[in-house]
Amino acid sequence: MTLSTSNTIDFDSARLKLISEKKLSSVAIQREKAVKHMTVLGLQQRLTQQLQTSLELERVLDLFFTAVQEFMGLNSLEFHHDAHAVKVSKGVPSMHRCNYRMTHAGDFLGEIQFTRDKRFSEVQLQSLETLLGNLLYPLRNALMYRAALHSALNDSLTGIGNRLGLDQALTREVKFSSRHHTPLSLLVLDIDHFKQINDKYGHAYGDAALKAVVNCARSCLRDVDELFRMGGEEFVVVLSNTDNHAARFVAERIRCSIAQMQFEIDGDPIPMTASLGVATLKAEENNEGLLERGDKLMYVAKRAGRNRIAC
Ligand SMILES: Nc1nc2c(ncn2[C@@H]2O[C@H](COP(=O)(O)OP(=O)(O)OP(=O)(O)O)[C@@H](O)[C@H]2O)c(=O)[nH]1
Question: Could you give the ipTM of this predicted complex?
Answer without folding.
Answer: 0.94
